[in-house]
Design brief:
Elements: H1 4-28, H2 33-56, H3 59-62, H4 66-90, H5 94-99, H6 101-108, H7 111-115, H8 136-139, H9 143-158, H10 160-185, H11 194-205, H12 218-256
Length: about 290
């Protein structure tokens, strides 16, 4: 039996769903005027909050204005907390959004503000809010550059094992050379310990050359010359490893975009039409709130 209460509950549920959908379009999409206004206002608030944190770190500015900065930080923290909760409320799968990149960044943008109540100095971690400006890629229709960034990240992930092996070899080299310089130069020339010698080896091998520790003996200078020459050759190794993996990722991605009409592959990531037959290419994108 349909009662007045049942109709009322159904009407409220439908209205609640409609409100979520409208809020979703405003917060997550930028194809409407309210959505664009929200995105621009959000970017302005994020930029202002980052500027406040940066200015507070300057002692001359902070002196005499501590209360103003504290009030502004809490204003932005509460504002971004409300925004984060609204994002979770209007998406279909809140947990999926919370685990996404932007969801984690949104959470990290407000957590340090509350941590500052318990641990002094953690408020400066709010500078991570600058990462939220990455939403400019979506607002300015620069999604193709996001795809390019994904390619770079995938290539870096694919080459991580080779790079780790390379870094292990570098650590072995600097340990050996640092120990040698400790034995050759000794504490009288600034090499007071093996860790101190390893520090010198790292600075020299990476061609930074601070100059705070320098070898004074002939043998030590010969070892130093060898380390410097090795440094120039070693710098190119991770670059070559990454470049090779990047090429493989680009070729593999082109081979995965297949035209449904002519079954040809070899398209770019942002291609909308087949370069062989001109047909539309369908790209399925999973949106967390869809």
């Amino acid at each position: 039996m349909v009662t007045e209460r049942t109709l009322s509950d159904g009407h409220n549920e439908a209205g609640n769903s409609q409100s979520k959908r409208q809020l979703f379009r405003i917060i997550f999409l930028s194809d409407t005027m309210p959505g664009r206004v929200f995105d621009v206002a959000l970017m302005v608030m994020i930029a202002l909050s980052v500027a406040v944190i940066m200015m507070e770190s300057v002692a001359e500015i902070r002196f005499g204005h501590r209360d103003i900065f504290r009030n502004l930080e809490w204003f932005f923290t509460i504002l971004f907390t409300i925004e984060y909760l609204l994002r979770l409320w209007c998406v279909r799968k809140p947990w999926t959004y919370a685990r996404s990149f932007y969801g984690v960044v949104d959470l990290l943008a407000i957590v340090p503000g509350y941590m500052s109540l318990l641990v002094t100095g953690t408020g400066y971690l709010l500078i991570i809010r600058v990462l939220r400006l990455l939403r400019l890629f979506r607002i300015l229709k620069l999604s193709r550059y996001v795809g390019a960034a994904d390619t770079l990240i995938e290539a870096l992930s694919q080459s991580r094992r080779k790079i780790l092996v390379f870094l292990f070899a570098i650590l072995t080299l600097v340990t050996v050379f640092g120990s040698m310089m400790y034995l050759i130069e000794g504490p009288q020339n600034g090499f007071t310990s093996i860790p101190r010698g390893i520090y010198w080896a790292i600075v020299t091998l990476t061609t930074v050359g601070y100059g705070d520790i320098t070898p004074n003996t002939t043998v030590g200078q010969m070892v130093s010359a060898i380390v410097m020459v090795l440094g120039y050759g070693i710098i190119a190794v991770p670059t070559g490893i990454y470049a090779a993996e990047l090429r493989e990722v680009i070729v593999r991605r082109r081979d995965t975009i297949k035209c449904t009409e002519c079954s040809r592959v070899g398209h770019d990531d942002d291609a909308k039409f087949c370069k062989f037959c001109g047909s539309n290419l369908t790209h399925q994108e999973l949106f967390v709130g869809d």
